[in-house]
Prior knowledge:
Structural class: alpha+beta
Order of helices and strands: HHEEEHHHHEEHHEHHEEHH
Number of strands: 8
Number of domains: 1
Number of helices: 12
Largest sheet: 3 strands, antiparallel
Radius of gyration: 23 Å
Oligomer: single chain
Amino acid sequence: xxxxxxxxxxxxxxxxxxxxxxxxxxxxxxxxxxxxxxxxxxxxxxxxxxxxxxxxxxxxxxxxxxxxxxxxxxxxxxxxxxxxxxxxxxxxxxxxxxxxxxxxxxxxxxxxxxxxxxxxxxxxxxxxxxxxxxxxxxxxxxxxxxxxxxxxxxxxxxxxxxxxxxxxxxxxxxxxxxxxxxxxxxxxxxxxxxxxxxxxxxxxxxxxxxxxxxxxxxxxxxxxxxxxxxxxxxxxxxxxxxxxxxxxxxxxxxxxxxxxxxxxxxxxxxxxxxxxxxxxxxxxxxxxxxxxxxxxxxxxxxx
Length: 303
């Protein structure tokens, strides 16, 4: 009887002290799926720059670059909308889905892509003016020779976009007025009234022909909306198809501005409406080939 009582007590004690793994609730599962989608589009967009993913013991996710730099994906800080612009991590930059559909007025309440992870930009394109300028090159396009960053295929993407834009303008002379004269590309400067570097400082943005209604600080939303309504939808689509986001799709609009952010375009293209997915696989919506399946396997092995 004593032995039997001892066994029962031991089993009872074991059940109390045994640590059971915490189940992932629905919210955690949705977060992990979104992390995986972000990592997939990042590794697709920057295949020549990102080689791996690491997860630390305290569950922070890092991108590992070919130069062995590690960049945190999500710093897990609570941030309001303004903080996501001022102090964005990579997760913040991909949080708002960039709309690929055409628009006819200023967007309300969202600035998809206006937040930038400077740790990421510094690691990919150069951490100071000297490093950035070593990565610049002149790209010969149908619109002239344009200085742009050659890293991450940015310059080649710009060349393709401008060549296609010029072909579009040759068919529709009205488009010429929105392209020429080009207002500028590389310019090592900060964004006005901020201490943050402009994407032009990294050589990954181009401003086309300027109009007085192009910028949110110059005019009100009604005039901005009129300019957006008139802006050639085909021209915007040419740049988006080559990995550029358009500043016209920001509440704080910058209509002449196009910025190379291929990961944002890919996320919108593949995962812009996850409600259409049957949710069996987190990567549903992405095209599958050997390269992409290899990335998916890497992500699944880490998360």
